[in-house]
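Q: What does the predicted 3D structure of Sugar ABC transporter ATP-binding protein look like?
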Amino acid sequence: MPEPLLEISKLNKSFGPVHVLHDVDLNIYPGEVTALVGDNGAGKSTLVKCIAGINGIDSGTVKFEGREVTLNDPRDATALGIEFVYQDLALADNLDITQNMFLGREIKRGGTFLVDGEMERQARETLKSLSVRTVSSVRQLVASLSGGQRQTVAIAKAVLWNSKIVVLDEPTAALGVAQTRQVLDLVRRLADQGRGVVLISHNMNDVMEVADRVAALYLGRVAAEVHTKDTTTTQIVELITAGRSGDLGLAHATTNEIL
């Protein structure tokens, strides 16, 4: 087993008197898709915001590539190579694919003039490296793209910056069958290229298909972290809804107890 890229230990987070995350342990490994699942209010969004540096943590440690780090704001996460693709995708409809992929990080000459050709080349090469064939031109306006194509552009934007970990928030929500297939294939390719991928999803079919392991949150705790091949959809649903699975014999078990 390789060393984890991201190692979260005993993380706690409260908002006033409300204790949202309780001693959360989570490891993200290179070359693997880790599905982060849980019911609404389980703490998934809060945990992701802690990883992103949006929410400060109250206690616990975060290590990246074996080194303890502090995530004070999103720039800290970006500097480490952690990129996020949220549900709203953060794409500008009035800009083309290249402009969106470099939005806020444009390549400039002399600090003033945009190097348009180089940005277009890098955008095209990034899409090619991900075997994306659903986009005909990197000069297409995002407004003209389908939902699946938009998701592809958002993921490619994250990959462009030499990311080591990509966090995807419900990437197949509201997509049709064919578009979902394209996005899931892309998620798998991200891991196959050596990245650590965090997939946040309520769709158990997607989770079972592409995830190598599943971390189930229940009321702010990690109920279990299990290898997908060793569990079933029913067992994962039990972890999400009850914090335990009779078949697995788990009740708020730790990672070491499971793996």
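A (community wiki): The structure tokens above were generated from the sequence. Confidence is low (pLDDT under 50) at residues 250-259. The two ends are 11 Å apart (CA to CA).
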